[in-house]
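so the lab meeting is tmrw and i was supposed to have these ready like two days ago... anyway. pasting both below. for each one the top line is the aa sequence and the line under it is the structure tokens. i havent really looked at them closely yet so no promises
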Amino acid sequence: MNKKTILILTALSITLVGCVNVPKGLEKEQFTLKSLSSIQQSDYSCQCKSIRLGGKVLTAQALPNKTKIEVLSYPVYSISAKPMIDEEPNGRFITYLDGFVEPESLKDQFITIGGTLLKTEQGKVDQASYTYPVIQTNHYRVWKLSQSYYYPDDIWDDWGFFGRRPYYWYGEPEIRYYLY
């Protein structure tokens, strides 16, 4: 390859990387804590630690001046701030949003929040006692879940050694989920 081609490919790749937009206020550089597992007991004392978490909204409750949300926490992508829905959940947390947000519009949605770690709250998950970290949210983003069907690559290879394969040879389409 000549230098001009390398320069064009480099510029194109930098341009495409720049297309990944992090929601405003959720940039990773401004948060000291980035997961539930990184929270220490001493972090609650100062109420000054900033944290970015994401997950699936389990319950939402409208209170007089704020909205309380219980979230099943998933790891968050460092660049896009989207929850990693293919990973295992790593706990739960409670967050408070200022003002009124319709609780029904939040249920079963995926959310990324950025805020301040405040305290812990005791609660129950079914019959078990659970200690929830509580976050006062400054910025948040609700993600939409979409699904697409696709066929694995080997499905399109429909000619075997003895000619075309019968219809029952083909597999089922698989589903992929995306957040946008």
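ok protien two:
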Amino acid sequence: MFEISQLKEKKLSELQEIAKELSIPKYRSLKKLDLVYQILDHQAANPKATTEAKPEAKAEDNKPKPKRQRQRVQKKPANTSNTDKAEANAAKPTEDKPQAKKEEQTQSKPQNNNNSNNSNNNNNSGNNNNNQQKHRQHKNQHKNQKNNVDNGNKDNRNRYREPDFEFDAIIESEGVLDIMQDGYGFLRSSDYNYLSSPDDIYVSQSQIRLFGLKKGDTVLGNVRPPKEGEKYFPLIKVNRINGQKPEVVRDRVSFEHLTPLFPREKFNIAEKQSTISTRIMDLFAPIGKGQRGMIVSQPKTGKTMLLKDVANAIAANHPEVYQMILLIDERPEEVTDMQRNVRGEVIASTFDKEAHEHVKIADIVLEKAKRLVECGHDVVIL
């Protein structure tokens, strides 16, 4: 492998020989610095070819060069006979070579006049080719100057350039919309009970107006990584709103304008995964879709266990219902037990949190239930 310092110390003819061995195109028309950079680029692109070419070149250099045999001419006295000359000529056939060369020179002289005219024509065509090559070199130099200015580096031929990847619309995320007072909003994550977290996704004010989004909408969309100066992952594409297409949700009727009715469809909580408590409740206090109820009893009598059995019975017998279990001011152990044993979304705010967080979580859960009802889903909040 050649280094740039070694190549700069060599002459142009030596560089041309190296370029010829590496089969670099148009190496004779390049200047010294350009030829140095071409050799370095060829080495970076073909490291194996250069390593294989070097030992071959060394092997050729190590071969002894054929030495020219000097002809020894002996001076003879002037009185030698013609027979001696004939014998000397027969003994030394190499002496005929200079005479043959002289005859060839005399024969080539009349041909030089004809070749001179052809050489003039070739010179004219060669000048045209040189002009074209110079024009191409000027274009290539102009392109290289542009690259150097863009990268801020004068010598970046052999340096690795990181490819430009686009990570837009690769990550797909989902969250519940929480709108701020300034008009923009964030998609809150269910992993943090819909409170502010590092997983929040920024939703611009124009997107909220375009799709008619409201507080509590469950939005599924594509996001991109934050740029310099940005703190959150911004939402760039909306795929689903509350499980439906954005075109359908745009024309929905708001929850305040829906007609309230008495329950018409009953929840079957006495069939699959039922207990004695759920069977008795199904007999004496049945519940249905669109009904409100409250369990009142003394402490430590099993209210939480009864809610757990009811939730499992509804999840087993009515899979079309979206079920949310809201636990406010509860113990962390009960929250963990509910998350492990109930098939449904558990949103909790334990007693170690402040009151305004309890209110915020309860508010966003109610808004989410309203948005799901507006889109035609059945929702149960326990």
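from a quick look at the 2nd one: The longest strand covers residues 321-330. The longest helix spans residues 96-151. will dig more after coffe
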